[in-house]
Design brief:
mainly alpha; two-stranded antiparallel ribbon; about 5% strand
Length: about 350
């Protein structure tokens, strides 16, 4: 028992350390990418190639004056940014990021927690994440912050419905809610086109498209960053936050992006499986971790490129898209996949 606890603790520590380091350098990556899109250079002065910029930013946030509104609810005001970062990180716990590791006669899953209902766990964590933004806006006792919090709550709840329907089809085909089982279901080639891996993005492209659109809205990213619309609400729900508390909100946003991309990779891009199913050695352990990281990085870069490319929606357009377009499409997708799975299971590689 103690050995199992120690193994889980080591895995959690490694994943947490890697995620915190990645979140810091995601800020640098995004600033450099958007600078290139806008024909600028971006941060490149602090350290070689600007690699020390995240360290400088972190020190600045820690040393900056901590301003707190006199009329705020202190307990909730302080809890909101911590809740944002925590909910963003714990969602990653059920993501398998490599094939099994065999050490001293033991099989260690490269996954912090292999939960049978992992997909439902992710939805539950995402639902709790709404509270960080709503509470932060309300506890600040500012009209602009409060409006930003209300916007975010309405937006995230609306798009959770479509997201939930979008991710129904992967575990419908895999026959399991366990992320590791869903990845295993995508490990072989597509029967009717053996050159392609049986990733669900190829057999369920509409579900993947719906998931990605909802992921942008769930993480409050452009073109759906209405809770932070600075032209209308100052800075939205975090207008009254400064210093490291503001930094926790920002890191929470990036943590949510990483988790959303990791779930997307797990459900639709085969997780750690190789894109070359006809080459068995590419599913060996060193390769599987590399495949997962590469897919995750591609999704994260896509999030960043969209931010530097598309304009912001109006709020009525945002809500109309969610309720009038995405939810009906998601329902049609679930019904269509269920019918195909019943009539032509070989289409999904199910025997």
């Amino acid at each position: 028992m103690w050995t199992d606890i120690a193994i889980h603790a080591v895995k959690a520590a490694i994943v947490l350390g890697a995620l915190m380091g990645a979140l810091a350098y995601m800020t640098l990556l995004e600033r450099r990418l958007i600078a290139r899109i806008q024909d600028r250079i971006g941060p490149n002065r602090v350290g070689p190639f600007g690699l020390f910029q995240p360290i400088a930013d972190g020190l600045k946030l820690f040393l900056k004056e901590d301003v707190m509104p006199e009329t705020c609810d202190r307990a909730l005001y302080l809890a909101a940014p911590l809740l944002a970062i925590v909910t963003g990180l714990i969602g990653f716990a059920i993501v398998p990021f490599g094939s099994d590791l065999h050490v001293l006669g033991r099989t260690v899953k490269l996954q912090v927690a292999d939960v049978n209902i992992g997909v439902l766990y992710v939805l539950a964590v995402a639902a709790v994440g709404v509270y960080s933004v709503a509470i932060g806006g309300w506890a600040s006792n500012s009209k602009y912050s409060f409006l930003g919090g209300l916007r975010s709550a309405a937006q995230m709840v609306s798009y959770e419905v479509a997201m939930g329907l979008a991710i129904v089809t992967p575990f419908l085909v895999a026959g399991s809610l366990s992320p590791s089982q869903i990845v295993a279901a995508q490990q072989n080639a597509i029967p009717w086109l053996p050159i392609l891996p049986n990733w669900f993005i190829f057999t369920q492209p509409l579900a993947f498209l719906l998931y990605m659109i909802c992921a942008f809205a769930e993480t409050n990213r452009l073109p759906f960053d209405l809770p932070e619309a600075e032209t209308e609400l100052g800075a939205g729900f975090h207008t009254e936050y400064s210093g490291i508390k503001f930094g926790w909100f920002m890191l929470g946003e990036y943590a949510n992006i990483v988790t959303a991309c990791a779930i997307g990779v797990t459900l639709f891009l085969g997780g750690w499986t190789s894109p070359f199913p006809w080459l068995p050695f590419t599913n060996a352990l060193p390769f599987t971790v590399a495949w997962f990281v590469l897919k995750l990085l591609v999704c994260i870069v896509f999030f960043m490129l969209v931010r530097g490319t598309l304009p912001r929606f109006r709020y009525d357009q945002l809500m109309g898209l969610g309720w009038k377009a995405l939810i009906p499409l998601a329902v049609v997708n679930v019904v269509g996949v269920a019918v195909l799975l019943l009539l032509v299971p070989r289409f999904f590689g199910v025997t």
